[in-house]
Amino acid sequence: MQTENKQLKHDCEIVRDAVSHALSWVENTTNESAANNAGLIKELRKSIVHVSKLAKAADRKMCVGVYGASQAGKSYLISTLARNADNPLLARYGSHTVDFIKHINPEGGGESTGLVTRFTMDRAPQASDDFPIKAALLSELDIVKILSNSFVLDIRHEDEIDTRDFEETVLNTLSELDGAPAGQSPLKIEDVYDLEEYCNQKLIRSPYFQALKRIGFWDRMAGLVLRLGKTHRAILFALLWQNMPIFDRIYAVLTDALDRIGHATEIFCAPEALFLTEGEEWSRDTAKSIINVSALEGLVNTGAPDGIRVRTASGQTVEVSRAQLGALIAELVIFMEYQPHDFFDYTDLLDFPGARTRSPNKNNPEELEKPEKVAGIYLRGKVAYLFDRYCDEQELTSMLLCVGDSNQEVAEVPITVEDWISKAHGKSPDMRAGQQTSLFFIMTKFDTGFVKAAGKGTDNSRWKTRMDYSLIKAFAEKSPNTRWVNEWTPGQPFNNIFWVRNPYFLQQGLFDYISTDPIVERGVRDDEKTFVADIFDGYLKCEEVKKYFRDPARAFNAAMEPNDGGVSYLIEHIRPICNPDLKRNQIRQNIEHAISQLLNILGPYYVDSDLAVLAKKKTAEAVQVLRSLAVVLKRQKMGEFLNAIRFSEEESYEVFLGSEHMATSVITGTAKQQDEATANVHVFTGGDDIDEMLGLGNFNDDDTEAAADEGDARQTSLKQPQDLAAKFVVDLEAAWTNKMFELADNANALHYFGLDAETVRTIAREFMKAAHGRGLFVELAELVRDAQQHKTEQQESYRWKQVAPVCGMFNEYIATLGYGGVFAGEGSVIRDLGDREVHIFKPMQRIGAEILPEKFTDSYRTRFVDWSQAVQATIRDNARIDAGIAGDSEDNERLGRVIVQMKSCSKGMAV
Fold first, then answer.
1. Range with top average pLDDT, 287-296, 559-568, 610-619, 830-839
2. 110 in the Ramachandran plot: left (φ > 0), alpha (ψ -120 to 50) or beta?
3. Is 911 helix (H, G, I), strand (E, B) or coil?
4. DSSP label at 719?
5. DSSP H/E element including 317
6. Handedness of CA 270, 275, 276, 278 (dihedral sign)
């Protein structure tokens, strides 16, 4: 097993190296379309982060995780899964064994410090009697994510927020940090993209994080974080929580602690971290255990004397305050003395802290300084983040989702579950088809279904209500991205559902007992058997039960089993899933998906030196895009799609603010390029058939010749921007490309328009390639410089004079691709895929002051069909630009080698 894991890790590392080579090519290529594609660079850096996490996951044991809202009934399940039938759950610490339930985490022992508990049969050779307790730690990046999460979700913000002052503060701070002296940093540039992805996925509802995204904050951070020392990193990260003093202090004390232990990822703690160690027996330290949430109340009290000795894997021994240690521990390892089940040979059990409802606090500095407030704010962010981290790192192979009997009020639970399903099984029913289901939906507190109350009969209504509360309203209605409840696989609902009852909770009105101390059940009371039979009959008639349970009767009877409560039945189904191949296959699927995406993104930049082959390739791309756009047209969503890909003046203004803070004053100038006009062709007015209107009706897939001149195409573009005008238009291109790549990653938007991600990426790539080819960005820079000649006293007005014309022309280009509007007033003649000449963007007929279409019914379609035709013409015409790129054969072949390397990785994964 270890050999297979090592090989998989090695394979992942080869893929990571291939992505690094691809990034190196983009950063050094002469292909301006690739070099200027900020979205491409970001995708590659994010892929390095993702594949690196997969490599780490490949070398670790598979894990089954128990997750759910707080008070969902997880404790009984954990204690039962982690012990065998003959022995209590004992933890081995050096030469000592400790009863987990009595002395580490007793039932009703209070809220924890928000850490994951790992139950394992593995042993750590570094553990000793002096330092027996193994723990995994958070990193500096983790702390930043937690504080960002808490700032957004645990602090009350105004409903309507004007972020202009905030944006100005951020940009000014970034400019100041540009001049900061170089220092040491434990972070990598990929960490910034990891942080950006987390914030944009989890926290983007916040107006502040929306503003950070608009002004290009993350790219600026990426350029700073590698060289900033701790003091200046604190200033940089404080922008994420608006310099709130309590957050600054938490960051400071925790990073100080990390510095003292050398930013270790795991440590071994002295016994006093958990226990009172007087005499031979170790017992729970109720007041001071780092598991207890009260330990966090001294988090920012730097004068707290209560330190705990810890030792790193390298042998370094330091003392860390109890509060800081509790805050830093991500995972506490329990070395089980007795093996509970055979699958623990290759499986660990993870107990996640219960998710809780977030209750935002008033932004009152004095109130927030109270120890209990500090503890609560940090704890909520930590609990929410930890599950995200384990999912993101592919640590959680299988999930046991515990759901109680009441309304599900913790809003983040269905969101995080859906996110895990997307990563572990796939976003769509088709992706989940043929896979083993590793999500176990466990409805706890089964015995509440037998409550007798006035007006509560034995029909199916009580079970319908429970299914509504626990599954349908809580998850089916809140999982729109995956639709996993109602369609786990094509045409089939999710049915891996189980009942669990805690037999150690006395139910003397329902069960007979052999003993009540300790509790030992005999079975259902004789005088209640008829009632239970009636309940069972109503249960079997419940449509929701029949729909979502694989075997409703067996699930019911298993939960009624004395002294078991359904756990044996659950374990029977968990055992086949606890197969190391499941985790390895999940990782392979993720790697395969990553390689496929990377090849789709990089492949179009590799240019065949044979012009005829190149022309066929570009025509094939045009056909694919046009067919996708035909779907958008048929859905009558083209107007909304065009609106989604344009750049608003507000977005452009935000980009300008960022550029303004970065620009130098060196002036550069470049000549404009002029297009030639074409005349004497017929006008295309279209008809009712979209495919016919787009030229797809006459197109033969075997005929993929494109009109591509052999002459070198001239690319007029901005090389290294040296003044504000050039900087702004380069940043505008980067921002628009990022916007398109984000649209390509937005499954909901793609589904709405009827598009696929590759079509959106192709549009982004080919639009910008053509824009450089026609010198658009040089023209845009000249517009800025022209506006700069008319300076006004009011700074904002002066900025708008520079932004508005650029935004207008850029959007005109997106709307016409240079074939109409201000670029070609009479429209342009192109050839459709059937090789017919068509006149697109022909001016409408004017009657008096009104512009009218030739036919009323053509007005919608003509506009958007013309745009679709412009798209295919642009892609095909780009063959001339690509032919010029192919002239740099060394650069082109370098990319070719990267692509071959990735393809070979894909073949290796499939073995």
1. 559-568
2. left
3. coil
4. S
5. strand 317-321
6. negative
Q: What is the pLDDT of residues 152-199, one digit of tens each?
A: 999 998 777 788 889 989 999 999 999 999 999 999 888 999 999 999
Task: Tell me how far apart the alpha carbons of residues 819 and 824 are, in angstroms, rounded to a whole number.
Answer: 6
- For Cα atoms 747, 752, 754, give the angle at the middle one, nearest 5 degrees: 90
> Across-strand partners of 218?
none
* Number of alpha helices (DSSP H) and beta strands (DSSP E) in the chain: 34, 21
* DSSP one-letter string for 521-587: EEEE-GGGHHHHHHHHHHHHT-HHHHHH-SSHHHHHHHHTSTTTTTHHHHHHHHHHH--HHHHHHHH
Q: How far apart are CA 422 and CA 826, in angstroms?
A: 49
Question: Do residues 275 and 86 make contact, with C-beta atoms less than 8 angstroms apart?
Answer: no
Q: Which two tokens stand for residue 257?
A: 């602690």
Which residues pair with residue 69 across a beta bridge? 355
Alpha-carbon gap, residue 210 to 739, rounded angstroms: 13
Alpha-carbon distance 704 to 621, whole Å?
A: 10
Confidence of residue 661 (pLDDT cuts 50, 70, 90): confident
Nearest alpha carbon to residue 390 among 774, 66, 48: 66
User: Cα–Cα distances in Å, from 856 out to 687, 739, 848, 869?
Assistant: 12, 34, 17, 21
User: To 5 degrees, how large is the angle CA 544–CA 549–CA 552?
Assistant: 95
Q: CA 93 to CA 91: how far, in whole Å? A: 6
- What are the backbone angles phi and psi of residue 523, rounded to the nearest 5°? 155, -175
Dig out the tokens for 500 from the structure.
């669990």
Tokens of 452: 């007798």
Nearest CA-CA partner of 59 in 116, 115, 122, 12: 12
| DSSP state, residue 520 | E
Torsion of CA 866, 868, 869, 871, to 10 degrees: 130
The three-state secondary structure class of 846 is strand
Contacts for 842 with CB less than 8 Å, ≥ 6 apart: 683, 826, 827
- CA-angle at 8, arms to 2 and 10, nearest 5°: 105
Return the structure tokens found at 787.
């506006």
What residues have CB less than 8 Å from 160, skipping those under 6 apart? none
Buried b (16+ CB within 10 A) or exposed e, 353-388: bbbbebeebeeeeeebeeeebbbbbbbbbbbbbbbb
Closest CA to 844 of 866, 812, 818: 866
Q: Which helix (H) or strand (E) holds 176?
A: helix 164-178
Residue 283 in contact with residue 277, Cβ under 8 Å?
Answer: no
Amino acid identity at 434: G
A 10 A CB-CB count for 730 gives 22
* Residue 634 clears pLDDT 50, i.e. is over it: yes
pLDDT-wise least confident of 381-390, 666-675, 686-695: 666-675
Instruction: Name every residue whose Cβ is closer than 8 Å to that of residue 185 and which is 6 or more positions away in sequence.
Output: 225, 226, 227, 228, 229, 233
Distance between CA atoms of 218 and 204, rounded to whole angstroms?
13
Query: Which of 209-213, 235-239, 602-606 has the lowest average pLDDT?
Result: 602-606
142 — pLDDT class (breaks 50, 70, 90): very high
Tokens of 878: 């780009």
* Max CA separation in the chain (angstroms): 102
Cα separation, 165 vs 180, in Å, equals: 23
Give dist(CA 828, CA 434) in Å, integer: 51
Query: Domain locations in the chain?
Result: 90-140+260-391, 156-243, 396-578, 610-675+709-817+865-886
Kindly indicate the confidence band of residue 108, based on its pLDDT and cuts at 50, 70 and 90. Answer: low
Residue 303, classed as helix, strand or coil, is coil
